[in-house]
Design goal:
The chain has two domains: 78 residues; 190 residues, Rossmann fold (3-Layer(aba) Sandwich), CATH 3.40.50.150. The protein contains eleven helices and ten strands. Helix 3 crosses helix 4. The structure holds S-adenosylmethionine.
């Protein structure tokens, strides 16, 4: 009985050690850094991957992931949560429309970074706001993610038609007044977004944990990504955003996320409840 009781914690401990070793090796050999993601979600996802492929242990999975690119792609997809929708949290888009766009309109060129864009809906939502305001033709949206499967969907600009019902509701809740169908054509059970929106967005792979910035932006959205990061990793990313934003540029994080202590000294909350911040002059 005593032996049984001590067995479970010991195997849990072993699993944690194996998981740490796995993530360390994946980083060292493949450059994908999940070492500073929060333990609970990271390890749960790793175990789901191990069970899905019926590996006997994390260590066995490790060898296969290192050797097999298809398995690596599946591992990366399992590790990332790509839940998203158009005009998600409509009040955020309402505020961007009413308070951020008028300032963006004063610039000859507008550069926006949507970091952790998943399957692209957030980037297209921003493009729609810019189009409504007559700003789309001077804007470039850089939309990045670590997950190539998601980026493929984003790049295609084709989405299931049933998602457009919620998208339309969200758009209207954000204060949008045009027919939402202005921005897509329906083909059977799919909707193809307008080529004008698509042409203003550059989708590419970028890892917030390891890559550096790639320019200066007037607005950065990074929503529902920090929830998966430990504080050290979030701070790294906040610092990168601080360096990437033009003076008085805006940073938008998820409504359920909070900046780190350092982040709060680099950015001032415009609307904390909605996750909207502004960078100072430095
Ligand atoms: C829940 S989705 C958020 C999508 C969108 N921003 C939204 O709020 O609807 C989180 C996204 O972050 C991406 N992600 C996770 N870790 C990342 C990293 N290190 N670098 C870039 N993207 C990452 C995931 O692949 C996923 O697509």
């Amino acid at each position: 009985m005593v032996a049984e009781q001590s067995e479970a914690p010991r195997s849990r401990e072993l699993t944690l050690i194996e998981a740490d070793a796995f993530f360390y090796t994946v980083f060292e050999h493949l450059g994908y850094d999940f070492r500073h993601y929060t333990d609970a979600s990271r390890n749960r996802r790793l175990m789901a991957f191990v069970n899905k492929h019926r590996f006997a242990s994390i260590s066995e999975a490790q060898g296969h992931v290192l050797r097999d690119p298809n398995l690596l792609a599946d591992f990366l997809s399992t590790m990332t949560v790509n839940v998203t929708e158009m005009f998600r949290d409509p009040m955020v888009f309402s505020k961007i429309r009413s308070e951020l766009l008028p300032r963006l309109a004063t610039y000859p060129r507008i550069r926006i970074w949507v970091a952790g864009c998943a399957t692209g809906e957030e980037a297209y939502s921003i493009a729609i706001l810019l189009d409504e305001a007559g700003l789309l033709n001077r804007a470039t949206i850089f939309a990045t993610d670590i997950d190539n499967d998601s980026l493929r969907t984003a790049t295609s600009a084709i989405y299931p038609a049933d998602g457009m019902i919620q998208a339309t509701r969200n758009y209207q809740a954000s204060g949008g007044e045009r027919p939402f169908s202005d921005w897509y054509i329906a083909r059977y059970d799919r909707c193809i977004l307008s080529p004008e929106l698509r042409s203003r967005i550059e989708f590419f792979s970028h890892n917030l944990a390891t890559d550096s910035t790639f320019g200066e932006f007037n607005l950065i959205l990074c929503r529902n990504v920090f929830i998966y990061f430990e504080e050290t990793l979030q701070r790294r990313v906040e610092l990168m955003f601080r360096e990437s934003l033009a003076p008085f540029g805006n940073l938008v994080i998820g409504p359920r996320e909070r900046l780190t202590t350092d982040g709060r000294s680099w950015f001032t909350a415009v609307d904390r409840r909605l996750g909207i911040h502004v960078k100072g002059r430095s």
